[in-house]
Write a structure and sequence with these properties.
The structure holds 2 protein chains of 2 kinds. Helices cover 84% and strands 0% of the residues of chain A. By secondary structure, chain A is mainly alpha-helical. Chain A is elongated, with a radius of gyration of 17 Å. In chain B, strands 3-2-1-4-7-6-8-5 form an 8-stranded mixed sheet, with helices on both faces. Helices cover 52% and strands 13% of the residues of chain B. Chain B has a domain at 17-250: Spore Coat Polysaccharide Biosynthesis Protein SpsA, Chain A. Chain B has helices at residues 2-28, 50-58, 80-90, 108-116, 137-142, 166-189, 204-210, 220-230, 251-278, 284-294, 299-315, 319-336, 343-352, 365-389; strands at 37-43, 67-74, 94-99, 123-126, 132-133, 150-159, 200-203, 234-245. By secondary structure, chain B is of the alpha/beta class. The chains are: A mainly alpha, B alpha/beta. The A-B interface holds A 2-6, 37-38, 41, 45, 48-49, 52-53, 94-95, 98-99, 102-103, 105-107, 110-111, 113-115, 117-118, 120-122, 125 and B 9, 12-13, 16-17, 19-20, 24, 307, 310-311, 314-315, 322, 326-327, 329-330, 333-334, 337, 343-344, 347-348, 350-352, 354, 356, 359-360, 362-363, 365-366.
Chain lengths: 129, 411
């Protein structure tokens, strides 16, 4: 029997895992609203775009968790940077940060997703070979 | 913007779901239906690439007695005419039409209309001069015409000179998203696969009924697609009928080409949006897809507007509006990074094609998206001004082909 490229079972599990992680992040007192929003967006995008593909579920879950760790670090770094700049240049920097925030997050989200895709594609070709 | 995001996600899932089926179908299919074919090759100053294409045309496996190849020398000032004549002397199926300086240089649609008057076959195909088709491409493409509802067929375009530089690599990624996922999903879902103006064909009877290509629109291919659908026919897409193109090699050439596409697409949106809505020949899903397809080039302009409006809103402290806007920015970014085929569509396309290394460049598509914001805004501004002033500013800027793609062909 030919294996389908679409794994609906993984997708359902991924949506559940993504929801749990996103809920934990959004209710955490240590994480800002912008960061929680971006990480929630990441979780659902990542799950929707990676979990339906062929590959081991554990590998996908690991990548989801690593992505969250990178996202937290990234957002912490940039929000600290923004707070410092606001202290020097005033509230107008906040506007710039708000507008640029999705851009800044897009860089790591798309890069990390490409990396995960390559990892899954490599494991697929290794198992096929 | 959310509609586009959902649409492209569905497209991606559909192609993933059908990936195995497509491979199987492609292997099982066997060409039976072979109508007579005329191939139009519009060429204006294409001396660096025309010889390569004509050589390839002589190598096509389609029965030569059913083949008519028409080179339209569109008032070239270089050696295009001489090279084509050399091939014409040695191959009886190759004909040349010369257009004088007065007749030529008015764009591709004009050249194609001139060429189609000489075509005498059942199906008329178009190939750009910089293309390099598969040897059996016509067998694959003509087969769908056995279905009388199919009026037009489109094959897949792949970049030939991809390794040349970063621009060609990014264009290759865009093509993967557009042709491996977007077009395929539209075909699978019975929506509106787009005729790309090249690597495709149309029934001659239908073309004559529609009155040929519309010379007043810069995106004559999209315009023809919609007229075909409005007339009750459909476009078939064959993903394994591949043809290789020489992609633009510089950001300047990219601007010129995409500006023409954006302006032409917007002209089509103005011309056909209402007709699509009112049409009795289109199903609801085709109408929705048609409208999304027609209006896609307006989206980068909307993104720019949301950024511009966002800054005053911030100072007005309108927190509710600002929140909506703040949410709209990432949605628009995730929807369009990848130049109308979002990054995940491009990535999954590359994944299905086994292009693992190409995936690493996906984050760089943000630059083409930003570039396209400027291109589409300029196109819309120019179009609006020309509409207000009632001036025809349709100037066909030809894409210059360097012939660098020749070195990537492995015989």
């Amino acid at each position: 029997m030919k294996e389908s490229e679409l794994r609906a079972d993984h997708l359902i599990f991924g949506i559940f895992a993504g929801t749990v992680i996103s809920y934990m992040l959004s209710t955490s007192a240590y994480i800002g609203n912008e960061s929680a929003f971006m990480l929630t967006l990441y979780n659902y995008l990542f799950v929707a775009l990676t979990f339906p593909l062929n590959g081991r579920l554990t590998r996908k879950l690991c990548m989801l968790l690593i992505g969250n760790a990178i996202g937290l670090f990234w957002n912490y770094l940039f929000s600290s940077f923004a707070v410092t700049l606001i202290g020097y240049f005033g509230d107008s920097i906040n506007t710039l940060y708000m507008v640029l925030n999705p851009f800044i997050n897009l860089i790591w989200i798309v890069s990390f997703w490409s990396l995960t895709l390559t990892t899954l594609a490599n494991s697929k070709s290794t198992s096929a070979g | 913007m959310i509609a586009y995001l959902i649409r492209h996600y569905i497209f991606t899932l559909i192609v993933l779901k059908n990936a195995q089926k497509q491979k199987t179908t492609a292997l099982l299919e066997n060409s039976q239906y072979q109508p007579t074919v005329s191939i139009l090759i519009p060429a204006r100053n294409e001396e660096r690439v025309i010889g390569r294409l004509l050589q390839r045309m002589t190598e096509l496996t389609y029965p030569k007695e059913k083949l008519q190849i028409i080179v339209i020398d569109d008032a070239s000032t270089d050696e295009t005419r001489e090279i084509a004549e050399q091939y014409s002397k040695t191959h009886s199926c190759i004909e040349i039409i010369h257009r004088s300086e007065k007749e030529g240089g008015h764009g591709k649609a004009s050249a194609l209309n001139a060429g189609s008057k000489h075509a005498n076959s059942e199906i008329i195909f178009c190939f750009d001069a910089d293309y390099h088709p598969q040897g059996d491409i016509l067998e694959k493409l003509t087969e769908v015409f056995a279905n009388p509802k199919v009026g037009v067929v489109q094959g897949r375009i792949t970049v030939l000179n991809e390794p040349q530089n970063i621009v060609t690599r990014l264009v290759a990624l865009e093509r993967i998203g557009g042709y491996r996922i977007d077009q395929q999903a539209r075909e699978d879902l019975g929506l509106i696969p787009q005729f790309g103006g090249t690597v495709g064909g149309i029934r001659r009877s239908l073309l004559e009924r529609l009155g040929g290509w519309d010379e007043s629109i810069l995106a004559e291919d999209t315009e023809l697609t919609f007229r075909v659908y409005l007339a009750g026919f459909r476009v078939g897409y064959i993903y394994d009928a591949e043809c290789y193109e020489e992609a633009v090699e510089s950001w300047r050439a990219y601007w010129k080409q995409r500006y023409r596409w954006a302006k032409g697409h917007m002209q089509c949106a103005f011309k056909h949006s209402l007709r699509v809505l009112k049409s009795k020949n289109l199903r609801l899903r085709e109408k929705i897809d048609g409208l999304l397809l027609l209006n896609v080039y307006f989206m980068p302009v909307l993104v720019l507007c949301s950024w511009i409006i966002g800054i005053p809103l911030f100072f007005l402290k309108s927190s509710q509006l600002l929140s909506i806007l703040w949410a709209s920015i990432p949605i628009s970014l995730y929807s369009f990074v990848g130049n109308f085929a979002p990054f995940f569509e491009v990535g999954i396309g590359a994944y299905l094609d086994g292009r693992n290394r190409a995936q690493w460049l996906i984050p760089l598509l943000i630059f083409t998206f930003l570039y396209n914001i400027l291109i589409c805004t300029k196109a819309l501004a120019d179009l609006t001004i020309s509409k207000i002033l009632r001036r025809n500013t349709n100037h066909w800027t030809k894409t210059v082909h360097s012939g660098n793609g020749n070195s990537y062909i492995i015989n």
